[in-house]
Write a structure and sequence with these properties.
The complex is a heterodimer. In chain A, helix 8 packs antiparallel against helix 16, helix 11 packs across helix 12 and helix 11 crosses helix 13. An 11-stranded mixed sheet of chain A has the order 1-3-2-4-6-5-12-13-9-7-8, sandwiched between helices. In chain A, strands 10-11 form a two-stranded antiparallel sheet. Chain A is an alpha/beta fold. Chain A has 16 helices and 13 strands. Chain A is globular. Chain B has a domain of 45 residues. The chains are: A alpha/beta, B mainly alpha. Chains A and B meet through helix 11, helix 12 and helix 13 of A and helix 1 and helix 2 of B.
């Protein structure tokens, strides 16, 4: 198999070949490193590439597998991490100039879990500075380019994670999601992105944006791959008090069943009110496909969802300000202008706003919980618009002109407020060739059902085997 | 959108937060905050006192890094 073909294998496909020793971890890792060297000068997915470390780890994995010590589906799989996940001895910039030279002396829990599973770390990925923005625009390391159209943003904040996986520069990646930062770039780059339930995956050793809304999740080319990564990441971690003892199922097995008889809800409020027509058409077509597989679809009222936006704003602004205040007092000039201004806004949010937001959160969450007692999952657009142009400040939809950033987070941030698991699955391309994402939201800690629906849709959806038009 | 005076914001920055702030950032902050104030006020439409605030868990422990 040619090296570029190796980089198109899913994690599950490559893992099966590695297990059978039909493929060498060194050969696979080298294929990814070669492709990074050829393509990343234009795509800017990586901040730090680790060729020596990756090849050493791949060599060790090869020996281990040859000795019969196969650890599981991630053993020998080349992955990469958003550059806010701590890696011992490897700089962790958070996409910032402030931490440009910071080398942690510990690993994040998720770094450790991936290493223990035998995954090979290719490098650290570009991102919106300090994860505070949904476009991925980065003034310090350059803006990662959307592989479907390089004049478009990839989405953020996990921009490099999406670009690397979509362009075949990593088999899978981790992102973080505080207002949509896994799901938005996944949708805009034609990938699968999973924001697990709040408390399902440890954030210990992950630089926070807003700790009561932050989630860590996988970004992959297939739903099965997302399940394989979640399997390793999920579970209680004493270092993160938000994690729980809720049992972790076998996700790959749990997602195999058919979806006949499942009840799916299309919210009447907010999510479908203002949408790009092509996004609306793709998401509704996806709902019809799921009906064709035997699920039933009904409309669900969620009248309090519009309160999630202001609540999310107050919480993120306050918590981010609390974290960044020392830097803002001493090193403000080192921030990019957009992120600094956004952080500065946090000092003007009142404590009463913050506490009202945390109360509102309970009400909104209870409303979504009630909806999810009536149906098994909700179907939403991931973003109301496809990827905006790199220079777009504002976007007009249905005659309403708003900041491009507000459009991008409109359908994702409510689910950070409620903490439910949410999966973005590619569900179509616009006439201009830009991906559209379907968002599937499930009950707390029921990632298995969300993955099962996504997996069933993926098999019949229009994005099977579609890749960005960048291969030469 | 509710208009917000950048002079007020500057005073808060200097006197309360004690964060040196660029005037250009204040204009952006005024715009961003102004866009949210009506929504924040509408949170009062909810029966907020009927619920406790969401538990704000402590952030996970982290490494200090070079501030």
């Amino acid at each position: 198999m040619a090296p570029d073909e190796l980089t198109r294998l899913s994690i599950a496909e490559a893992g099966e070949q590695l297990r059978r020793r039909a493929l060498s971890p060194v050969e696979l890792t080298r294929a990814y490193l070669d492709r990074i060297q050829r393509s990343d000068g234009d795509l800017l997915a990586y901040i730090t590439v680790l060729p020596g470390e990756a090849l050493a780890a791949a060599t060790a994995a090869e020996r281990e597998i040859a000795r019969g010590n196969y650890r599981g589906p991630l053993h020998g799989i080349p992955i990469a991490l958003k550059d806010l996940v701590l890696t011992r001895g490897i700089r962790t910039t958070c996409g910032s100039r402030i931490l440009a030279d910071w080398v942690p002396d510990t690993d994040a829990t998720v770094t450790t879990r991936l290493a223990e599973a035998g995954a090979i770390l290719l490098g650290k990925l570009n991102m919106h500075e300090f994860a505070y923005g949904p476009t991925g625009v980065n003034p310090h390391y350059g803006t990662s380019r959307n592989p479907w159209d390089r004049q478009r943003v990839p989405g953020g904040s996990s921009s490099g994670s999406a670009v690397a996986v979509a362009a075949g520069l990593a088999a899978g990646a981790l992102g973080t999601d505080t207002g949509g930062s896994v799901r938005i770039p996944a949708a805009l780059c034609g990938l699968v992105g999973l924001k697990p339930t709040y408390g399902r995956v440890s954030r210990a050793g992950v630089i926070p944006l807003a700790w009561s809304l932050d989630h860590v999740g996988p970004m992959t080319r297939t739903v099965t791959d997302a399940a394989l990564l979640l399997q390793v990441l999920a579970g209680r971690d004493p270092a993160d008090p938000s994690t729980t003892d809720v049992p972790v199922p076998d996700y790959r097995r749990a997602m195999q069943g058919e979806i006949r008889g499942l009840r799916l809800g299309l919210p009447k409020d907010h999510f479908f009110e203002r949408l790009d027509p092509e996004v609306r058409a793709a998401v509704l077509a996806a709902a019809r496909s799921l009906e064709g597989l035997g699920a039933s679809v009904e409309h669900i009222p969620l009248p309090n969802i519009p309160h999630a936006g202001p609540a999310s704003f107050a919480i993120i602004a306050s918590e981010a300000m609390a974290y960044h205040e020392p830097y803002l007092k001493t090193r403000a000039a080192e921030y990019g202008a957009d992120v600094r201004a956004r952080l500065m806004t946090g000092q003007f949010v009142l404590a009463s706003h913050y506490l009202k937001a945390q109360r509102a959160r309970q009400i909104i969450r209870a409303e979504v919980d009630a909806a999810l007692r009536r149906v098994d999952a909700l179907l939403l657009p991931t973003t109301p618009i496809p990827a905006p142009r790199l220079d777009a400040q504002e976007v007009t939809v249905d005659g309403v002109t708003e900041d491009a950033r507000w459009w991008l987070i409109r359908c994702t941030r409510p689910i950070n407020v409620t903490g439910h698991p949410a999966l973005s699955v590619p569900c179509g391309l616009t006439a201009g060739g830009l991906p559209v994402g379907l968002q599937i939201v499930g009950r707390h800690f029921d990632e298995a059902t969300v993955l099962r629906i996504g997996h069933a849709f993926e098999a019949v959806g229009p994005m099977r085997d579609r890749r960005p038009p960048l291969d030469s | 959108m509710a208009p917000i005076s950048t002079h007020v914001l500057q005073a808060i920055s200097q006197e309360l937060s004690r964060i040196p702030v660029d005037p250009g950032d204040l204009a952006t902050a005024a715009s961003q905050l102004g866009a949210q104030l009506d929504g924040l006020a509408r949170l009062d439409d909810l029966d907020l006192l009927a619920v406790e605030p969401a538990t704000v868990l402590l952030p996970p422990s982290e490494d200090p890094h070079g501030a």
